[in-house]
Amino acid sequence: MAVWAIGDLQGCYSAFRRLLDDIGFDPAGDKLWLVGDLVNRGEDSLATLEYIYSIRDSVEVVLGNHDISLIAAYYGVRKSNRFIDPILESPHVETYIHWLRHQRFLHIDYQLGYCMAHAGISPEFDLGMAIRYAKQIEERLQADVPEVRIWLEKMFHHTYDRFDRNASIDDIERYILSTFTQMRFCYRDHRLDFDQKGPPTDKKLEKKGMKPWFHVVDRKSVDLKIVFGHWSALGYYQDEHVLALDTGCVWNGRLTAAKLDSHTPEIVSVPCPKKAPEDLIF
Known about the structure:
5-stranded mixed sheet; 13 strands
């Protein structure tokens, strides 16, 4: 059995299937880890979701911000767009949304020595805290329909950029959701920045005291290597603590897979020639 982690798909179905062919993926015996943002911006979000659902027993998924936005659009909390409209118009949309709502924000494999979250793990969280807080918002997302719609409305009402145990439950959960799905840069005091999406080599950001979340001082220890995506401007990156796999497929980049069940991750990637249009809502 092989275990492969793959970066943000964002509806790039043809590149996804080419990559699976290149790595020789066999759903009968292999396992895929998908870092989230399964849909939106690419040429065929519906086909991507349909295929992942068809092999769901061979896939570990963590939810990304675009996946949450799709769920919110289904409940009328967010606007749709022409890339996710086919999902929302599918006769099987209820099945797909139900399945997505029951995916996780954090996946862990102690034997492999890896964990996975779409944007990473907050520098304020050790592994135990990350497990506890991920479960907290997973339970919110899996609640009965009226409750999950209300919760999503609260989460999208505004962002919350710091970890404060004395804050309201809603703000604490806004922070938790943001760290797992939107985090890139942090300030010296670990506050999140939601505006900067560029590369971490930007000297202007460094002068402002902003660093990638995995490089901030006094980040709490997580005793597993963290697989994440979400940051196409970062691209492929790994060190002893993290493995970043969003290589900007939908932005005319590549789609990348890393083999996790080997001493050193084997990296395979394929080009994704279609660039995302610029008229997207989210």
